[in-house]
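#struct-pred
JK: can someone run the complex with iron/sulfur cluster? inputs below
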Amino acid sequence: MLEPEESGPPTHETLAARVAAAARELGFARVGFAPAAPFGDAALRLRGWLASGYHGNLSYLAEGERGDPRALLPEARTVIAVALFYGGPAGPVALRDGRDGRDLTAIVARYARGDDYHLVMKQKLALLAERCEALAGRRLASRACVDTAPLLEHELARAAGLGFSGKSTLTIVPGLGSYVLLGELITELELTPSEPVRAGCGGCRACLDACPTGAFVDAHVLDARRCISYLTIENQGTIPRELRSRLGTRVFGCDVCQEVCPFNASSTPKPGAPELAPRPALATLDLVGLLELGAAGYRKLVRRTALRRVTRDTLARNAAVALGNTRDARAVPPLERALGSHPSPLVRAHAAWALGELGELAADARTALAEAGASDPDADVREEACSALARLNNASLAVRCPA
Ligand code: B12
Ligand code: SF4
Ligand code: SF4
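RT: done, structure tokens with the ligand placed:
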């Protein structure tokens, strides 16, 4: 039997203050409350965005009623929106920009270097739900959401006063920046709504100009199909050729639009979630090791991390592209091995492209490319190998693909 913490029912405001304190104790850097009501404009904007095709293969974004939390919990009165900070102190690897490809280390986006935030967030939200019940002195219908539930999380964060929508489309929390992950506890508990944040980007447009793939159609509008996060994680097939060189050595996600954001520039220590702190294995991941990762190594690497979302072949495909972007001769032998013997045609095709990208450094790989161009069982691999060979030979062919 649950007991209230004091006799006499607390006001919605007192309860809100107590819930906020409980959330902070659980490690959330910020918490806010929004009435569980439809969003209106935001749902309309989402429909326009989908109609433009910017979502690519993310068809789940068109499913469900993302603009009303009550579609997920009919009894809902309040959405408790929370932010988990993961920016933490960043070492040289964490800050390095891979576009110049200075070594053979892969870049994994910051949010994915520690434990999988879905697991961390869900666990903390479950504890928060228990604390809410203890504070209310009764059972409460509630639903914990992070990322995967059909909800516009930026809108909820804004409505609950956590932050504002940056031109990067990301939620920026004043005093914390954008290196936060969002979660929600939809509850039947009535809590006084939080004040919205009155701030914005002003005249800044650093993220729009810095994006390596030119993924922003406009301020606040992203073409997901061009975003490196989409290309390296959501897209399990071929990475469009014209975008590959823009990936640098990023193999899982991208942080450029956050690295340049002035709201992330402060070095004041912030209340980060220890579970999201970088694991050494992910902060300094070797590209050759990733290309040649075996089944057991893959399981060990991705266990309880966000990398679980992608297959071993997708990681190897990304590693092949990244090796092609290193401009480093040490990338040639592993790429040649992958071209000759990787079981996945997707990986072989991207390895062929990468050898072509290495130019003169990969001169010794001409024979391997010609062989693949002539006899690989997969038509895409043959095509990529011939195209890479033509680039290596600069059209004056020493070794040719068959006509
Ligand atoms: C699909 C998705 C992606 C897609 C598309 C991203 C996008 N911007 O739409 C891809 C795979 C590209 C992606 C990438 C990343 N993602 Co993501 N993603 C999502 C997801 C699941 C849905 C987002 C969505 O609904 N997109 C559809 C578009 C239309 O919605 P929207 O961006 O919210 O657009 C609104 C605004 O732009 C606004 N708007 C439009 N015009 C205007 C004009 C003005 C003036 C204003 C104020 C607003 C405004 O209206 C739209 C509707 O409300 C959310 C989780 C969730 N359930 O919400 C996480 C989420 C947004 N992702 C997250 C993260 C961390 C990332 C990455 C940083 C990961 C990485 N390091 O690689 C990148 C960042 C890229 C970027 N600049 O957005 C976090 C963001 C945390 C934060 N601080 O904001 C979220 C919230 C997940 C989470 N639970 O924490 N993501
Ligand atoms: S995450 Fe990278 S690729 Fe995606 S919008 Fe931001 S800067 Fe561009
Ligand atoms: S970089 Fe500038 S424009 Fe982009 S989100 Fe940050 S403040 Fe806004």
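RT: quick notes.
Residues 166-168, 201, 204-207, 260-263 surround iron/sulfur cluster (ligand 3) (CB under 6 Å).
Residues 91-101 have pLDDT under 50 and may be disordered.
JK: thanks, will look after standup
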